[in-house]
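Sharing a chain and its predicted structure for anyone who wants a worked example. Both blocks are below, sequence first, tokens second.
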Amino acid sequence: MQQPELSVVVPTYNRLETLRHVVPALLASDLAAERFEVIVADSNSADGTAEYLAQVSAERPGVRHLPGPYSGRAMARNAGITAARGEIVLFTDADIIASPDLLSRHLERHRVEPGVAVVGMELQVGSLDEYERLRTQPAARRPLHPAGRKSLSWLYFLTGNASVRKSDLDAVGRFDENFTGYGHEDLELGYRLQSAGIRILYEPRAVNYHWHPVPYAEQKEKMKLAGRSTVRFYRKHPSFAVQARLGMTPLSLALHTVVKKAPRLLDRLERAGSASPGFARNVVYQYHYVTGIKDALEHEHA
């Protein structure tokens, strides 16, 4: 069997509903089948994922099911890295639909500028209908970064659409498996890659679509978990740059105290945030994020 040039690593846990769209989209790549493989690092899903992947791999041997008792996405991705046969490892997720040229765009960028990390354009979609609309109407897209941006900081090393040489991942120690909760295991790896001199480049032509609408209440809880991960990140890399970029500053902690002492204001913000996206919702998310930071700090001294 020919050695693939690129290995796509997809961590998953009970995401069969979206995985049924994600895997076929990857297999529809304009890259020749023998040039890539898809490794699904599955945390022992119980929703039929194994049976589905067995059917797919019977026709496409380049799709590999890698089940295991993974404690989180960091551990699952590391298992995928270990299994990867390609020189380049591309990370995506079980709810992200690839464009046909996603893989070839990543490979092309690595050929032109070897020894870098590449982050593509990840677009948020709330439904398959929105995915179809943005796929066919580029003018309607609202990406996080402008198309002219050349490079990114570690703060935007988001592994829904990022690729790195396997040898570089090995050199910096891969993902930190101590990040078992939600958030920041990818940013922390990006920090180490950048600290090792590996530039993080933006490739706006490498497009994929993140199909995971998160309800308001669930997102607030995720923000708390991300806040907890921020403290773990800072304890590992105690620099002012990390503190400032992750919003763990004396000012943000003080503002959180002010809002907490004004329950009527917080209640109004919560209700406004639940009604529609906008300023109030962003303030509420930030409040819960800093709540997670404070919870983690207090736990350290308990």
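Comments welcome. The first helix runs from residue 16 to 27.
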